[in-house]
UniProtKB/TrEMBL annotation:
InterPro entries tied to this protein: LRR_dom_sf
Organism lineage string: Eukaryota, Fungi, Dikarya, Basidiomycota, Agaricomycotina
Protein name: F-box domain-containing protein
Amino acid sequence: MTTFNNPSLPFLPPELEQEIFEIATLQHPDSIPNLFLVSRRVRQWVENIKYRTIFPHHQHSLSMRHRSTCSEDELLQAIESKSKSADFFRERVRHLFVEGLDETELETVFSVCDKIHSLVILSELKHPGQFFSLKQFTTLRPIRLGLYFNELVQATDIQSPHPLLTSVTHFDLFDTRLKDDIADQLALLPALTHLSIWRSSATPGQLSAVLTRCRKLKALVAIDNWRKEPFPEFHVEDASYSADLRVVSIMLHNPQYLHEWVTGTYGGIDFWARADVFIGKRRPGEIEPSTSH
């Protein structure tokens, strides 16, 4: 009788088999329940992928290259069910985008997910100062972060950065109007190299102060999302806003931000990577001051 242990049967190398199931998980997340049933090792591979990048299920996300394998609500339910240990989520969740969870629910998530590399918080916070003072944020060290900065500074000592910010290199600020002391606050961040803001959220004076005080800053992207006429993705700001080579503007509508963020978490070319290339070409003069891209 033929069995699966028969050495004469063809088989795939484990590395290739794992890659096939990981691709299937990413491209067809609806198939995850069925993939769990294949074998114990396949379930482990699929679980690693399922919980690695968490972002909302949006209608417009269906056309994205990477569809959500697990939403914020599904993650919360899985944590609250206690069917998996805290270490299970701690070792798997690496990229988290939340917008619909309240403070109590977020506290539950961050109590076990404290090894996050990329974090976006768009949830409406009723008590931001109290929320960002939670003990969970004393150990969380994201590399890439997006949030409303004015909410975070309510829980920040003016003389030192919030613990959440000590390892941040790429920082996306969603505030529509930044406070006057924004340069003083950002200058406290020891690792900051890339900053994005809404173009209308800062004055030229604030921008100049940020560029002067944040000496490690390599790129400052001013985001526009209101222009209706055809417009190049990147363009150089006029001198009245900033003549600094590190400053560029980008057209990016709100739904596109999620797509860009997800692309970056999977190692793709996101707006930060494209901005670095654009700025890199400006320095040796490959791109003229008036050039757009």
